[in-house]
Amino acid sequence: MRKLGLALLAVCVLAGAAFGAYPEKNIQGYIMWGAGGAMDNVSRAIVPIAQEHLGKTIILQNRTGATGAIATTFVANQPADGYSILFGAENPNLYKVTGLSQIDYDQFEPVFLMMANVGVVIVSKDSPYTSYRELIEAAASGKTITMGSTGPGGLPYVATTMIEKIHDVKFNKMQFDGEGPCITALMGGHIDAVAVGLLAAANFIHSGNVKGLAMISSERIESVASVPAVTEVYEEYRPYLPWGAFFGAFVRKETPAEVLDVLRSAFTKAFQDPRFDEFAKTMGGVKLGITGDDAKKYIRQNQSVAAWLLYDAGGAKFSPEEFGIERPQGK
């Protein structure tokens, strides 16, 4: 009996040691967007710090294509062992309603949501509109206002659709291949306004080349504190917020809880590191720092707003209702 007890104890110790070794090897990280973009920059800023706490290297590679669906599908088909991490943005939230893919964040566990890219409505420095209210009232009066867009699903498109729905106005949308070209067109006088991510606009706001009229947020953002939150002007936006792009790390849903704990601990410590804090301030993004159920709630809110706005605007192939995506409360 004593020998049996010792044997069982040895098995438990060995099992604990085996599990406690995670990670036993380097980890693969797959970034859904290309080199030099916001998702890439955020991932490459936090990973070197996180791996200091993991004791192993996270080998990053950009696996681009199909609005992030290539990387998302690839990681979804890897073993659920914590050795394949998806570094993704908000795009999978619209895969089902656009028909792009049946795989979205329902198949993943959020390790950590690092940052958000909050939308900001900007105009050129010479624009006659000096406030967000002036811009909206001009549109409501019937004046033709040309807004930049990047097509259905992109932040400028969804944000503009939100504005149209809340204020019952219509803009003339001019499509460009990315937020950068939108801002270039704005400064060149080809469009009147555009809603873009703050990460794309912050430097232009700071230099005075464009004016920020409103953050699509319920709070002012520290890096551009002079730009009012949209709810300071119109409370009607509050049910749709928080909303915007986000950047996070994800693993397959079946990943053991113990492995998730190790990863979440490492990314939490990296997030709190002064080096990442400095990066976030330089980038102009909003630090999130959420995980677990809070992260899931944040993702569901983002999906609810974007999917229903896209569907109501005729930009989705399928109703969000088909996938159990609830409308934003009261909307």
UniProtKB/TrEMBL annotation:
The keyword Transmembrane helix does not apply. Keywords: Receptor, Signal. Transmembrane segments: none annotated. It holds the Pfam family TctC. Residues 1-20 form the signal peptide. Belongs to the UPF0065 (bug) family. PANTHER family: BLR1237 PROTEIN, TRICARBOXYLATE-BINDING PROTEIN. This is Tripartite-type tricarboxylate transporter receptor subunit TctC.
